[in-house]
Amino acid sequence: MAAEHGGERVAIVGAGLAGCLLAVLLGRRGVPVTVYERRPDPRAAGAERGRSINLAISARGLAALEQVGLKDQALERALPMHGRMVHPLGGAQNFQRYSADGERAINSIGRAELNSSLLDTAEATPGVLLRFSQRVTGVDATAGGLLLEDADGRVSTEPADVVLAGDGAFSAVRRSLRFDGDADFLEHGYKELTIPPRGGEFALDPDALHIWPRGTAMMIALPNLDRSFTCTLFWPKGDFAALDTPERVTAFFAAHYPDVADLMPALAADFARNPVGSLVTVRCWPWVRDGEGALIALLGDAAHAIVPFFGQGANCAFEDCLEIDRCLDETGGRWGPALALYQERRKANTDAIAEMALDNFVEMRDRVSSPVYRMTRAVQHALERRLAGRYVSRYELVSFSTVPYARIPARIRRQNLVLAGAASGGALLLALILRMLGRAAGRPRSGRRGRPRR
Ligand SMILES: Cc1cc2nc3c(=O)[nH]c(=O)nc-3n(C[C@H](O)[C@H](O)[C@H](O)COP(=O)(O)OP(=O)(O)OC[C@H]3O[C@@H](n4cnc5c(N)ncnc54)[C@H](O)[C@@H]3O)c2cc1C
Q1: Measured from the CA of 137, which atom of ligand 1 is nearest?
Q2: pLDDT tens per residue across span 299-327
Q3: Ligand 1 proximity of 192 Cβ (cutoff 6 Å)
Q4: CATH number of the domain enclosing 127
Q5: Ligand 1 geometric centre to CA of 14 (Å)
Q6: 21 CA from centroid of ligand 1 (Å)
Q7: Which of 255, 278, 301 is a domain's end point?
Q8: Closest-CA residue to 229 (of 204, 266, 252)
Q9: 303 lines ligand 1 (CB under 6 A)
Q10: How many structural domains does the chain have?
Q11: Burial readout 375-393 (b: 16 or more C-beta within 10 A, e: otherwise)
């Protein structure tokens, strides 16, 4: 039964990353909550197939994990990646560090392990009840309850006054209530492949996120603690089917990914077995609906799934949870005003990161290997060192700060404008620019400092 507090029975749908974090935050503020998860307990049943195996977690995600005492634990089990290792076709690989000083890193963290830590913490939080193998099929708008189906197909209704839907990109709650919006599918899908350890060691540099940019396609690889790499091949969906025999798979990789094909002994079998995942941007508004027997709010991917090219989906979902908690603080714990404030504050931010994530796809699959891009990044890093805190690159603001996403595009435009002016003007203009940049900027709050690159 959905948990009660001050009269309200509060339910969270989905014990994924956002659902678990929010349950912990609510439990800690004394709000009892019941979490309904369609899967069996993944700590006993094992991770779900077909989900990305590892995630890049950066400053925003770490800030959220810190709030529930999980940051250090997560970092102990993380592999820091201080930059991109770009593998051009027919050229030498080159390392592009993420930050001007080379010290900041994004962190490769196992999704299943992170989810398990959050589940453990949620389970240990007084007032939090986890119910597994309970698929929510919809919301009973008249009676105000959740419609559930268990693993044996038994259906039931659980009363709930507040429903917080963290049930992912294909949210049953969003669809059942026909929240306004759409799910924009990218023409590209993805397939995960593996580079196992070689002689017990990493087969590639583990201090980097590896990218094979190939124009309309791309592959990336992130390191895992067992010294393997998980590769993700992004490709127009229709093209995967053409590789329908082991010979075709092997020949394709030998031609397009020659430096890595030999590092993947199970390539053809993995390619045949692993599913092609979809990449979706969810644009939906409003996220909160009242007056249908319950107060219902969407969060995380259910409200705003984004494509994974900035490694921000989970980071951004975690920020939603912190914002809900903050809004409850600011509204004296009243759910209606708190959730209204939450959606107003978050929407512009999630729209901004959705666009930046789409844009970053083009950067990763295309631009990163061009000499002009590399020169631009070198200039950006030089400016960041010279104008510390006044000139800050987009990557730095997104990944190594908690500056609201919505402020980033305007700030980058302003920086670019004044720099373009500098390029065509003289010393006087440069002095003016420095003053403008000085005024425009607030130093980003820094994320974790990684160890120096080996
Ligand atoms: C290929 C890929 C790579 C990615 N890489 C990164 C990355 O590097 N960094 C990053 O920050 N983000 C990344 N993301 C995005 C990230 O995975 C999501 O943004 C994040 O998982 C969202 O968390 P969530 O809790 O909102 O949803 P989810 O993690 O999807 O959790 C939803 C939960 O709800 C449950 N559920 C679903 N339907 C129901 C139902 N009807 N009833 C009950 N329970 C239900 C699910 O079983 C699940 O447990 C990546 C995504 C993809 C696809």
Answers
A1: 41
A2: 999 999 999 999 999 999 999 999 999 99
A3: no
A4: 3.50.50.60
A5: 9
A6: 13
A7: 278
A8: 204
A9: no
A10: 3
A11: eebeebbebbeebeebbbb
